[in-house]
Design goal:
Layout (H helix, E strand, L loop, with lengths): L7 H10 L2 E5 L8 H11 L3 E5 L5 E2 L2 E2 L13 E4 L6 H11 L3 E4 L6 H9 L3 E3 L4 H8 L3
Parallel strand pairs: 1-2, 1-5, 5-6, 6-7
Antiparallel strand pairs: 3-4
Length: 139
């Protein structure tokens, strides 16, 4: 199966529909990309749910240890973990039945992609959610 991600327009539609974004690997350090991207998305009106077992709180929100600790539905799981860890995150993603698996720019894992696509999920990898939001928000 070839790797094929949604078009820019489709990603824009996903972001327009989404309300809750769980961010796996969200750091509480202000100089980290995960923090900066999540802060922008939070200011744009998205509910950000930090998923990181090593922190208590970030961006004014209590962190959870894993995706399974989130109450309620999650629209997007945005992942800031190394590419080799994406398959493990994908397995947990399936357990919570979120809508979209989104791995940040520079992150791809074909095994995770195939696993999720075979189950019918929308998968986006190697794309910055903040950049896609900026490119599509006025469309």
């Amino acid at each position: 199966m070839a790797v094929e991600y949604p078009s820019l327009e489709e990603m824009g539609a996903i972001l327009k529909k989404a309300k809750r974004i769980a961010v796996v690997g969200l750091s509480d350090k202000h100089d980290r990309t995960s923090y900066q991207v999540s802060e922008v998305m939070q200011k744009a009106g998205y509910e950000i749910i930090p998923v990181n077992p090593t922190i208590d709180e970030v961006l004014g929100v209590k962190a959870v240890k894993s995706l399974k600790d989130i109450e309620g539905h999650v629209d997007i799981v945005n992942v800031f973990r190394r590419s080799e860890q994406l398959f493990d995150v994908a397995k947990e993603f399936v357990e919570i039945d979120a809508d979209v698996f989104w791995a940040q720019q520079g992150l791809e894992n074909e095994e995770a992609y195939q696993f999720l696509k075979e189950k019918g999920y929308t998968v986006i990898m190697d794309r910055c959610i903040k950049v896609i939001h900026a490119l599509t928000r006025s469309r």
